[in-house]
Amino acid sequence: MMNDHNKHKKDDLSQVEKWMEQFFLDPQTSFMDQLTFRIDLYETNTHIIVEALLPDVDLKHISIMIDACVMTISVIKKNTESCSRKVEMPFPLVDKRVHAVFANGILEVWIDKNRSGNGKKRYIIINE
Fold first, then answer.
1. ∠ at Cα 71 (30, 113), nearest 5°?
2. Which residue has the higher pLDDT, 77 or 102?
3. What is the β-pairing status of strands 62-67 and 122-123?
4. Which pLDDT belongs to residue 80?
5. Which one of 28, 38, 66, 110 has the fewest CB atoms closer than 10 angstroms to its CB?
6. Ramachandran quadrant class, 119 (left: phi over 0; alpha: psi -120 to 50; beta: rest)
């Protein structure tokens, strides 16, 4: 039974690595970074971190929605221009614990690999 669990974890890890590689190699990612705002992805042993560079944006003008496998980060810039980025994950986000922090123009969304969420479409509260 333990071997099946370890094999499943390795399969999940392989899937996340492929997904991250595809995200960075996709020309659409680079285009959207320039058109709206830049997004970077990081991975630790326990989390996947989505980082959005949002200089000149106030916290009150940022929202994060997760629905199924998609995270949508929406912002209103100081010139009242509205824009958003969708990041599609290789797993259901609604089933994961997600929290966010915004400081110094950088939004970090932390997706916990091991802790469960409530399984529902929801907005994420952003802490300072």
1. 105
2. 102
3. antiparallel
4. 72
5. 28
6. left
Q: Could you tell me if 84 and 77 are in contact, meaning their C-beta atoms sit under 8 angstroms apart?
A: no
Q: Provide the angle, in degrees to the nearest 10, between the axes of the packed helices 2-25 and 27-35.
A: 60
| CB count in 10 Å sphere of residue 80 | 7
Q: From residue 13, how far is each of 16, 32, 81 by CA, in Å? A: 5, 26, 37
Mean pLDDT across 89-102? 93
State the Rg of the chain over Cα.
Answer: 15
Task: List pLDDT tens digits, range 109-120.
Answer: 999 999 998 889
Rounded to whole angstroms, the Cα distance separating 39 from 93 reads 17
Average pLDDT over residues 34-39: 79
Positive/negative CA dihedral, 90, 91, 92, 94: negative
Lookup result for tokens 């690999």: 113
* Closest CA relative to residue 118, chosen from 99, 95, 91, 98: 95
For residue 51, pLDDT beyond 70: yes
